[in-house]
TrEMBL record:
It catalyses: holo-[ACP] + malonyl-CoA = malonyl-[ACP] + CoA. This is [acyl-carrier-protein] S-malonyltransferase. SMART domains: PKS_AT. One of its GO terms (molecular function) is [acyl-carrier-protein] S-malonyltransferase activity. One of its GO terms (biological process) is fatty acid biosynthetic process.
Length: 297
């Protein structure tokens, strides 16, 4: 039985000082181009030598796109091109790069503008909710919806959900969610990503996206928004929607588990955030498969 190779690219939250340091000297042309586009030294940013903080969205996203790209070049030299790619939020741009939909230059220019707009969006916050199922979370959210806008930003797994929206409502929900058995942590981010707060950002970002020449995929890219493969005709529209839509990471992985019998998932980038989530999602999927009477090898 043939193994389907899937590359996964991490998004914001996977960054750390020193990431990718071993790769900069191997791919100097990428670093030179990145420095020219961004207007600062990526190596110095990721090493903590600049006053600019790696943990500010404006700088995090471009740096992570660059480092993910270096890791991809390195692993392709060793393993060859994968069968399928996907990325978590920002990481989806690396997936599109891997599928030759965008090149490195255009991809970084898109990410730079995306990061600038997202970091400048006023108001809102995000919280991660663990150990509570999504239906219970939604029931609690809906009770308080009239007092402010809060929604599901990320479905990382069935028991790890990220909320995004009004800060005051998030604070009120924290107590209710904890009373229901959840572990709730506020995320240190500059805005309410993947929520209605990002709709004005999406409108402005659309002007930049329209200027980009997107090629057809040479390998399938799984979309965060639909948890299914991108259609070539819809790439720009879905990228815009991604800013204010839920990142259905759990659904994306389960789509692949349902479709392919033997899969080798490989995380391409700094850290092992997605590999950790993958273990939880596989357990959830196997549990569901047993319940549904589906054989799981």
């Amino acid at each position: 039985m043939r193994t389907t190779t899937v590359f996964m690219f991490p998004g914001q939250g996977a960054q750390y000082e020193g990431m990718g340091a071993e790769l900069y000297d191997k791919y100097p042309e990428c670093i030179d181009m990145a420095n020219q586009i961004l207007g600062y030294d990526v190596r110095k940013l990721t090493s903590g030598e600049l006053e600019k903080s790696l943990h500010f969205t404006r700088y995090t996203q471009p740096a992570l796109f660059v480092v993910n790209s270096l890791y991809y070049r390195d692993i392709v030299n060793e393993m060859g091109v994968p069968d399928i790619v996907l990325g978590h939020s920002l990481g989806e741009y690396n997936a599109l790069l891997a599928a030759n939909v965008i090149d490195f230059k255009n991809g970084l220019m898109l990410v730079k503008r995306r990061a600038e707009l997202m970091s400048g969006a006023p108001g809102g916050g995000m919280s991660v909710v663990m150990q509570l199922d999504i239906d219970t979370i939604l029931n609690i959210i809906n009770v308080d919806r009239k007092q402010g806008t809060v929604g599901i930003a990320n479905i990382n797994s069935e028991m790890q959900i990220v909320l995004s929206g009004d800060v005051a409502v998030l604070a009120k929900l924290k107590t209710k969610l904890e009373d229901s058995g959840a572990i709730v942590m506020e995320l240190q981010v500059s805005g309410a990503f993947h929520s209605t707060y990002m709709e004005p950002v999406a409108q402005e970002y659309n002007k930049h996206v329209k200027k980009t020449d997107f090629k057809n995929q040479n390998i399938p890219v799984i979309s965060n928004v639909t948890a299914e493969p991108y259609l070539d005709a819809d790439i720009s529209e879905v990228l815009i929607r991604q800013l204010y839509s839920t990142v259905n990471w759990s659904g994306s992985i389960k789509y692949l588990l349902d479709k392919y019998e033997k899969i080798d998932f490989i995380e391409v980038g700094p850290g092992r955030v997605l590999s950790g989530l993958l273990r939880y999602i596989k357990k959830e999927w196997k549990s569901r498969a047993v319940t549904d009477g589906i054989g799981v090898g």
